[in-house]
Amino acid sequence: MPDQRLDRRVIRTRQRLRDALFALIEEKGYTAISVQDLTDRADINRVTFYFHYRDKDDLLFTVMQELYEALEATQPPPDDLAGWARQDALHAFNHLREYAHIYRVLMGEKATFSLVGRLIDYSAQAALRAERTRLPAGVVPPIPLEMTEHFYAGAFVGLARWWLLNGMPYPPEHMAEIYLRLEANTGAWAVGLDPTDHTAP
Fold this sequence. Notes:
- The protein is mainly alpha-helical and 201 residues long.
- It folds into two domains: 4-55, Homeodomain-like (Arc Repressor Mutant, subunit A); 75-190, Tetracycline Repressor, domain 2 (Orthogonal Bundle).
- Helix content is 72%, strand content 0%.
- It contains nine helices and no strands.
- The chain has helices at residues 4-28, 35-42, 46-52, 56-72, 81-98, 100-107, 113-134, 145-165, 172-190.
- Helix 4 (56-72) packs across helix 5, helix 7 crosses helix 8 and helix 8 runs antiparallel to helix 9.
- The protein is globular.
C-alpha cells in the first residue's frame, strides 16, 4: 500500500515549487531565475529539487504539461480527426488565457531564442505523440511527422505570442478557429490525408 503521507508530501513540494516558479517569473523574468532562487522561495533544499526535476526547464515544462492535461481531461475525446484538431486548438488557447501572465513573460521582449525554441519543441513533441495515436492505420505521411509538427508548432507559438502581447483581442474560441483556418488544407496533406476530406475517421 503506498505511503499516503509521502504522496501528500510530494504533492506539497511540487505545488510549492510551481508557486515559486510562477511568482519569480512575474518578478524577475524566467531567464534570470536560478535553481537556488526556486529552492529559497519554496523553502526546500536543492537535493529535494533535483529529486523531482532535472533543472528549471524541466520544472517549467512539466508544470505546463500537467496544467494543460488537467484542462484536457475535462472534455470527452472527439470522434474524428477534425474534432481532435478543434478541441486541441481550443484547449491550447484556453490554457494560454488562463496563464497569460506567465506566457506573456515567457514569450515577451526579454524571452531568449532558446526559450522560444523550447516552447516550440515542447508543443511539437506533444502534438507528435497525439498524432501517432490518432492517424488511421495505413496512412503514410509524405514527409516525416516530426518536421510537420515542428512547422505547425512554430506557427502556433507565433500566433499565440501575437495574441498574448496584443492584449488577447479575440476570445479563445475565435483564435482556435483562426488557427484551424490557417492550418486547414496543408495540415491534412502533410500527415498523409486527403485535404478535401474533413470527416476522416
